[in-house]
Amino acid sequence: MTKSNSRLHFMDAIRAFAIIMMLQGHFVHSLLGDVYRDKNNLVYTIWEYFRGMTAPTFFTITGFIFTYLLLKQKITGLENPRVLKGVKRAIKVVFWGYLLRLSFYALFTGTVNASFFYVDVLQCIGTSLLLLTGIYLVLYRLNQTWFRNTVFGLGFFIFLFQPIYSSFILESLPQTVANYFTNKNGSIFTLLPWFGYVCFGSFMSTFFLKHGDCKRFYFCATIVLFFVGILLVFFSSPILMLWHSFTEVEIFKAVAYNNFLFIRLGNVCILFSLFILARDYLTNKIITKIGGRTLSIYIIHFFVLYGSWFGLGLSRFFYHSLSPIQVFVGALIFIVSICSLVLFYYKIEKKLKLGTYNLLDKTIQKTKIMSEFSGDLLSDIIRKFKNSRYIRR
User: Fold this and answer.
1) How many CA atoms lie within 13 A of 81 on its CB side?
2) Where is the Heparan-alpha-glucosaminide N-acetyltransferase catalytic domain (predicted)?
């Protein structure tokens, strides 16, 4: 196995892990009974902590993979094939983000449901990819160092200024636009701070591109990411307070008192280090396929769990009502079913599309034949009618 393939398996394995964590997290969060949501219960507390790692991991690996594939190309600028492909992918992701939140019931009553305009994970990811593409197009004429420093700086300052922009309401902006920057109107994921994780993932990928072929790079990357993760999880708050004591800048103190962003980034770094360490054992084709079909898995899970257009999902009938045993078994069935359904579809996709094409082609041909037959028959009837009138005269 080549190093390139190893890297790709490592990326897809993290993405597969993140989507599976998302599936079980959404299932348990939606269906577990309120009486079992005990903060003093060790099992629930551990589950809740690890669930909090899912979104940071997903945004970070998104920025990592997108930048890795973008900068890997020898062609730069607009000629880079990954630019157009990335823009199309981003628009598709944003489109599905809005489409999944559309209520057909509201449409039938002549309105659009308010939740349609909420910004969720797909809109946030798609817009983040567009922003990354824009940064690349501005800086590609310089070098990768400028790009690397820029995305790192953006990520750092987005995290650092979270106490300031978290209170923004942005009433002067159209609500559809404001929803990308504030959750005051109901948005679940906003560009700030989540674009910061995308930037840090992009930053990390530049080192894998530059040094990935070095003999001991993966060993060094594992060590560095692990210790950076430990530093962020256990020491980022004290460091921020130390900066505050030296500078008396209140923003450092505010971040230290609510330091979830840097701590979660530390969780992601530790997770990355573990996957890099085990990369040679993560080459299973199923893992790779699941990691490569995350959008489809997300779409199907949204329909099954939340009901999407019609609101007839599992959460409609079992919302906050299941016991831990029921949730545990149900989550396993849910994960296996959704992943199996998506993988089976892509397995027969070519045959399905070919069969659909042939069916449409046959239908069109039959329609043409029927149209020609009907036209000839109608012409014959008209001609006979005219002849009969002529004979009567």
Assistant:
1) 4
2) 7-221
pTM of the predicted model, to two decimals? 0.88
Q: Give the Cα separation of 129 and 88 in Å (integer).
A: 10
> Following DSSP, what letter does each residue of 231-276 receive, concatenated?
HHHHHHHHHHHHHHHHH--HHHHHHHHT-HHHHHHHHHHHHHHHHH
CB 54 within 8 A of CB 189: no
Pairwise CA distance, residues 320 & 31, whole Å: 4
Which of 338, 276, 320 has its CA nearest to residue 23? 338
Mean pLDDT, range 51-67, rounded to an integer:
95
Burial class (CB in 10 A: 0-12, 13-18, 19+), 213: exposed
Ramachandran angles phi, psi of 32, nearest 5°: -65, 135
Q: What is the CA radius of gyration of the chain?
A: 27
Percent of the chain with pLDDT over 90: 70
Q: How many helices (H) and strands (E) does the chain have?
A: 18, 0
Give the pair of three-digit tokens for residue 359. 């069916």
* Residue entry with tokens 């949501």: 37
Nearest to 182 by CA among 199, 164, 200, 157: 164
Q: Please answer whether residues 159 and 193 qualify as being in contact, where contact means their C-beta atoms are separated by less than 8 angstroms.
A: yes
Residue whose structure tokens are 């948005």: 187
212 three-class SS: coil
Tell the burial category of 143 from Cβ atoms under 10 Å away from its Cβ (0-12, 13-18, 19+): exposed
Residue 80's alpha-carbon distances to 83, 85, 86, 159, in angstroms, are 6, 9, 10, 31
From residue 306, how far is each of 27, 50, 58, 68, 125 by CA, in Å? 10, 22, 20, 33, 20
Over residues 287-311, the mean pLDDT reads: 93
CA distance 383 to 2: 76
**Contact present, 32 and 324 (Cβ < 8 Å):** yes
Domain ranges of the chain: 3-347, 348-393
pLDDT for 203-226, tens place per residue?
999 999 988 888 899 999 999 999
- The per-residue pLDDT for 90 is 96
Strand partners, 322: 32
Residue length, the chain? Answer: 393
Q: Which residues contact 149 (CB under 8 A, 6 or more apart)?
A: none
